[in-house]
Structures are given as structure tokens and as C-alpha cells.
Amino acid sequence: MYYDSIEITYTELEPEPAPEPKRELESKTELQLEPEPELELEPKPEPEPEPEPEPEPEPEPELEPEPEPEPEPEPEPLPVPEPKPEAEPQPYPQLQPQPQLLQT
């Protein structure tokens, strides 16, 4: 069965009144809302950054050519065990037609 159109209906819910906060919570909130007394801080003048002395470039020592390391002999490959032949998945057994016994 197919429908030509579908009507969607809904009802608007009225907002629930907010529960009255407990007095304990109010007092904590009031304490948090009190502005902290501002401490008068004298503005500190920013110190001018001293120019860093440029380091003198050190003369590069002459590099002696490093002797090339001798190539390490390659380790002999480990014998790979031959994979065991897995049991081949058997096809579904062919169902043999069962002779039906006729009840008399």
C-alpha cells in the first residue's frame, strides 16, 4: 500500500518553570559574583631587550674523510618451512533424493 502524502502533526510543549534554586547555592553564587577589590599595580616599564652579541663563527675543523665501514656479511636466509597443505574446503555434499514412504 502506498500513500500519496503524509501529514506530520506535532504539539508545542510549554516550557517548564525553572525550579527555584536552593538558598545555599544562591549564597555561593552571590559570593562568586562580588567583584574582587582591584589591586593598584604600578605599570612596570618594559625593559628594552639588550642586543645579543653575535657569536664569532668558529673555524670549521678540516674533516678527514671517514673510512667507509666494511659491509657486513649478509646473514644466511633462514629456511622457510613449507606451508602445510590445508584441508581443501569440501563442497556441500550432494543431497541424495530420499525415497518417500507413502502412508496408506
TrEMBL record:
Question: Where is there biased composition of kind Acidic residues?
Answer: 48-75
* Stretches the record annotates as Disordered: 1-104
Give the Pro residues compositional bias ranges.
76-96
Q: What is the lineage of its organism?
A: Eukaryota, Metazoa, Ecdysozoa, Nematoda, Chromadorea
Q: Please, which domain of life does this record's source organism belong to?
A: Eukaryota
Could you identify this protein by its name? Answer: Uncharacterized protein
Q: Where is the composition biased (Basic and acidic residues)?
A: 19-31
Q: Which organism is it from?
A: Bursaphelenchus okinawaensis
